[in-house]
User: What shape does this take?
Amino acid sequence: MASRATAHDYAQTILLHSRTTPDLSLFPGHNYRTLANFLYQPYAALTKNGSVALSPQTQHKPLVVLYKYTKNSVLHQLQYEPTPAGLENLDTDTAPACDAGKVLFFNGFVPPEWLNLIGSRYRVDPEFFRQHLRFMQPERQLDLPGLYSTSRNIIRLPLISIGTWTLDQPLRGRGSLAQQRSIARDKTRSYLKGLGATTPGGQSIVRGVMVNDEAYFTVEQELNICVETKDGGWTALCWLDGDLDLDATVFNPTQQDGNDVTSIPRQSHWILPTYLHRPRIALVGPALVEPHHVGNQQPWRGYASISKLYGRLLDPYCAHQDPFYALTELFAISAFSVNQGLNLIEQSMDSQTTTSISDMQASLENLRQSKTFVRAQMSQLQTILGFIETQGPPGAKWPRATAAKQRELIAAAATELSLDYSHLHKRATTLLERISSESEWLMHRAMLNESQRAFSQGSRVARLTFLAFLFIPLSFTSSVFGMNVVEFVGRDQADLSIWSWVVLSVVVFSGSLLLWWWEGVQRHALALQGRFGKGDARTEHKQGD
Assistant: This one.
């Protein structure tokens, strides 16, 4: 592909690669087929006048936010709405410029024509787009997640949001936790499958909704970062999953069996913000807030605000020179969000009560879900930690600051991030061990309860068996004497005395009791035999002396 390829050339090149078959190349492109069709759709569906068919427009909010660091280390912010005019302005403002650092934010779902423009302008590896849109890939393709070399220049940061149920819509009346979790999984899967070329630009991407308990739920999103170097400068592409649009179908009620059942309360604004911290921030924070926003209780709607508030506390000269330092705020936001997610897992475990078998089953399901979540976070934390320790992907030629003062500032920021992520990784490891320990304890307790219940049932069966054993001899003798047998009644039909039945019953009953306790009688007899045998041996020994 030429160095000045157009957006159409970018999409067409990927489409041609997706048609490469294994018999023609060692690098077949079938795994790019979904992405290629998505990127090429605007050019495949040309309008009658020959213009490109643009994706539908969503509400007026920035789809792309561009930050430019100039040679004088001045940070400029440019915003682009998902309109044809916004796309044209982005095309103009992203023209090649030497010695310039740029941070480009995508908010939510990005239409293909925008991705083609950015991809062709900065020669972006299509793997970056494919990995962020991996939910569009068919499940039968198993190449993701790939090897380290396939995403060496791509860093994936988890963004965790915590939501609470509203007081007027409690979870208790909405079915069991297992039912709510099943609904959440199904709706998330359906929501992701509905995203495509006709999706309005800026629509939020929700990768997972986890119902923790009757009070909280967790929303999983991502921030994917790729740094491209060109013409002596660098550009960091930061793709956010967007804000939490609670009007989206993934959060809306659904009818099930005539009842209003939903995994997330509709119109609930109780999405807890991610609380960041730095030393003495409470003393300098008010200077960063516009006066008319002080005291404004607007609900927090997710991480879309990152693109608007980025870079206010960064050193602009250092950020202009070093892309890793320019991205440290994003690493910090991800760390604080994961920390809150782990806090919720630990809080849920502390509040669990297991007083019955049903409670134990629910607790085991909670622990299984928590284990899956923590294990996924551990894997990502380990990858991010290695990225921070090398201040970028190993082997990648990211620009570096050269002045000693800037190098010290970058090293301090990297050390702080490394300590935070090391703490998170150790905490996740400890939490995973606790989950495994509590799972084993619950299983042992459930087995003990089952054993106690089986023992109780066995005792009742033994009592019933003993009662049956008592009545069987009596029933036998009564049946025998109830038969008109000549040997019993005689030929002259003389009546037998009741004592005859009593004597026979005592004999039969005694024999039955002897059989019932035969093992005990046998052990007792052997013990007596051993005792008297030792006594006889001692007597013979004395007589011999």
